[in-house]
Amino acid sequence: MKATELLREDHEKIRDLLERLKLAGDKEDLLLTVEKEIKIHSRLEEELFYPAVREVNGAWVDNALDAHQQVEELLEDLIDAAEEESEFEQKLIGFEEHLNAHIDEEEGKIFPEAEERLEDQLDPLGAEIHQLRGDLEEEWREAA
Ligand SMILES: [Fe+2]
Ligand SMILES: [Fe+2]
To answer: pTM for the complete prediction?
Structure first.
């Protein structure tokens, strides 16, 4: 599977998790899953996908790395607020806004350009992403 297809699937999964989080009474397990999925997804992009994108546009990658940093900080805040219903709701809105803006940037601009200009790299990159995801999931299981 192409790298961009795998990464789009991740986005879809993360969006679904956030929808579930809005309705969940007990948030703890879901938050842990959100944290795991976002951190794994960011690593896959940072280690494998973005280095290839840098050949197309370095500034896009720099912006994307900043966005990852910000999303991760907001996520830490969100996790810290898990016990406070109203604070949590507020933080979830802010978190989702930042996350969606970044996902839109990738799906609307970076991925289509990569699909055009890095076409022959996307299948091998997809295989590497699949492999690294397996390793990272193993790490999370061991740490749990
Ligand atoms: Fe990203
Ligand atoms: Fe992404």
So the answer is: 0.96
